[in-house]
Amino acid sequence: MLSDFSVTHNVKQAVPFFNVTNIEDSLRFYVDGLGFVMTNQWAPEGRIRWCWLELGNTAIMLQEYWRDGRRAGAPDGVLGQGVSICFMCADALAIYLDLISRGVAAERPFVGNGLWVTSVNDPDGYRLDFESPTDVPEDTIYSGDNSEP
């Protein structure tokens, strides 16, 4: 049986792994839109099929559904339905302003659970929440200028 010590000290990071229907669309969204950096990839036949992306101290992996030499094998329906990944940030409002300046359709920030929250959906419907602590009252909606709220 493993000791609590070995389990506790061996787990280093949780990395979301998203299967996607079109990796080129996903890379445009994550790299160009959100600012992730690709730090590793698998590209059989010279075409990216899997990659590791980083943003700050976080990471995600993307892999395209692929079968018999073409895009195939994705399940029916919206892939990301019900999936939400929360990125804890120093300043979610700054993230929001950066995202909209890049043309990303980010939701207007609001305060929930003592956090500013702004959200985006990737091309396959995976929801990404960018959150930062605040003492602004619950249910406040960001006014759109550079001062809170």
List keywords for this structure.
single chain; alpha/beta; 2,3-Dihydroxybiphenyl 1,2-Dioxygenase, domain 1; 2 domains; four-stranded mixed β-sheet
Concise overview:
With 149 residues, this protein is of the alpha/beta class. The chain is built from three helices and eight strands; from the N terminus they run αβαββββαβββ.
Secondary structure: elements and pairs:
Layout: H1 4-10, E1 17-20, H2 23-33, E2 37-42, E3 50-55, E4 58-64, E5 84-88, H3 92-101, E6 110-112, E7 115-121, E8 127-133
Parallel strand pairs: 1-4, 5-8
Antiparallel strand pairs: 2-3, 3-4, 6-7, 7-8
What does this structure look like?
The chain has 149 residues and is α/β, with parallel strands linked by helices. It folds into two domains: 14-71, 2,3-Dihydroxybiphenyl 1,2-Dioxygenase, domain 1, CATH 3.10.180.10; 78-149, 2,3-Dihydroxybiphenyl 1,2-Dioxygenase, domain 1 (Roll), CATH 3.10.180. 19% of the residues lie in helices and 30% in strands. The chain has helices spanning 4-10, 23-33, 92-101; strands spanning 17-20, 37-42, 50-55, 58-64, 84-88, 110-112, 115-121, 127-133. The strands form two sheets. A four-stranded mixed beta sheet has the order 1-4-3-2, with helices on one face. Strands 5-8-7-6 form a four-stranded mixed beta sheet, with helices on one face. A hairpin with a 7-residue loop joins strand 2 (37-42) and strand 3 (50-55). The longest helix has 11 residues, at 23-33. The protein starts with a helix and ends in a 16-residue tail after the last strand. The model has no long low-confidence stretch (mean pLDDT 91).
